[in-house]
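Q: Structure for this?
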Amino acid sequence: MYKPMNNKQFLITALGLGILLRFALMPFFAHVDLFSEARRVFYVLENDYLFDNGHRFVVFYIEVIFAWFSTLFIDVTNGLFHLNDPTQSVSNLVDYGFFLNDPNIYRHLFFFKLPYLVFDIATALLIWKFIDNPTHRKIALLIWLFNPLTLFSTYIFGRFEVISLFFLMACALQLKYDRVFFASALFAVALLCREINLLYAPFLLIALIDVKDHWFRNVITLSCCAAIVAAISLLPNYLINLAGGDTQLFVDPSVTQPNNSLNALLSLGYYWFYPIVICLAVLAIYQWEIGARAKAERFVLSASVVLFIYFGFNVHSVHYAAWLVLFPILSMQYGKKVVLPFMALFGVWLILWLLKTDNGVFTLFLAAPLTTDFIGMGHFPSFFRQHIATDTFTLHQAIQLMRSIFLVVMGFFAYRVLKNEPNYHAKS
Amino acid sequence: MSLKRISMDLRVRRLTARIFALAWIVPAAALAGALFSNASIAQTVTNDLSATSSNDYRVSGDDPYVIFNPGHEAENARYLSIDLGSHLTGVPLEIFFNSQQDLFNPYYKISFTTPSFPALLELPTDISFSQSTRLRLDINQCQDCPVNLQSLPFLSNQVSASATVVQPSRVQNGVRPLASGSSPLDTNDWQLNDLSGEPNDFEISASDPFLASPQLTLSTQQLAGAYFKLKVPRSDQAWNDYQLFYQTERHAFSAQASSTVRVADSFNKVADSFNRVADSDNGIADGADGVVEFMFPLGFLSNEQPSDAVLERIRLDIPEISGNWALLEARLVHQEQLDDYLDMIPTQLVEMKQQRATGLSLIKKSLFNVFADIGFSISYLLLLILTAWLLVRAYRSNR
């Protein structure tokens, strides 16, 4: 007789299949960026510069620890990661070619992505813990484990986004239990993984305000939390400088710093700067207005919408889309119906990047670790130009069309996340 | 003469005439049949040329050519008269002249360009065409060009004032196979660029130093790779890059058809231990200070698609290290010698190829690469099995 899976069995099955899928992808795909990152990591190990490099401090040192672990299984003294000049660590195609032809490439890729797997699965477990409704948590877990965005970003493109997402997840969980100082500390750690997380900072601080509490107590709490965030996020650079380390170890001095550093931080085109600022300000007002709700709910909802605004208007790299996944999943805890927007997002993201890719971003180039014959096998934009585009409907127009639809999907997401779910609040 | 005899005579004559007539008709019919059958072979074939009017075409793909029989204006002709219209002046053209059932051998071709049409291509003395020779005229590097095929190329001995006489830029009449026990290449006549001295003793004089072989024109059929042994001055870098360019019948020297190896400085003993130096007993390597040796694999030239049939020239770009250099040995390695040279392939190798494996061979190659690291493959499979087993076990224990 058929017996449905219990919750624990569901969790085990989903995690097991998720891990197997990740194992299947880990050793065989990568983008050049992964090799550039690996060169920096091995440069630090090779030269014992363990107290330098303040850039994305947490991610970097997690990678250093796992890279050191990998040296127990792989000989890395063959000059593969050798850097004559650390400021020139961004790999060109020839250097990457050496990596692709290295007999140990599968070991390197497996071990280099191992911390990503650990943090990815840990995030899945925290999501399971965060969401109380058994059905919602199952859906949330499935979306996290099998969504193409994080799978692509982490195991095919090979970037570290999940580490940053893990600390944001942990921050949200601490907020759920009203542990505001722990939440602030974890948020600061997330800032040390990705600077873009700074976007969430004002919304975290607003979420920490308890409208039922005395204003003075709120001021003290907010000040302490802000101090924790500032102290932890600034401490590594301060200590490295104090110890005489070089925080600019891998910074290329020949690259001119853009004048508008805030724009650069947000990867924004100039024209979209003001609409984003306006939308974020409106969102802050909204968050203030729902001040009676739980801290975690206010933070999760606004963090979701922050990203919808950000991604709706800016030009971003393909793997950044992984940031979009976490907070909307967590919004399911508050009865938000986000499955359909997720499906729309996956579809529109896939088509947009098929159209928008260059030779190495969303093409078979990423399978080059299997054989370098995958390099230059053609990409969808050239197929589109040859077989689909007309004089009146060019590739550029198709990309702009999909970008517009992407914005609409972000709007759809925002609507579903902000929409008041009467059933949920009635139950609450 | 009696009437009966005359009548008999007439019958014999008629019979004889019939026999004679038959004797002519049968061979004539056979000849006509043969001609008819030749006529069917002798049809003009075009590829990647789309007709815009009855004799006007336009290049419509990557491989435009026309296959035809040259007209028979002259026996033992000295020229091939060609008129394709003014748009093809200065365009690289090739005549392939050795075929079986319209499959042309790339080893046999005449390359030329012409400043104007009509043109008389001067035929090499050791190559002769007849009217039944199938020729293929390839039009290179000309997208969307209009081509006029009103008058197909024909053999001629007449030099006219209106036609430009054109010399072939290159004639290839066959190709040499690579000998299994090949000796080192003679490097005395190699071209030195941004290098001062001779191949056996030179210094770098400018920023693009390389050594290039003369025309080799060798079949790639049994080619396994190109081996080099150099005397190299001390470098201030632990690792140095050497790049091999290979010119074939399909392309000139190009970065997209080159391989790069990263070789340790031979004076740096820590790094140098990773130079794959062979056993000194085989007389190939000595691993001495200042000597590096390596082989670039080139087997893919004939194995993968699109294949290159002829190795025209090779060129070795060297790193900018000041001091005295020498090219001690350059050798094209035959497949049968490959085992002796496998250790000379540096672990750090990049191949920028125009060839590539496709379809099933691509899958096979990927699997081969994965299983080449046998330690990883076994551990990886065990990890997958272990994960699956743990999953099933945990599932069952939570019933």
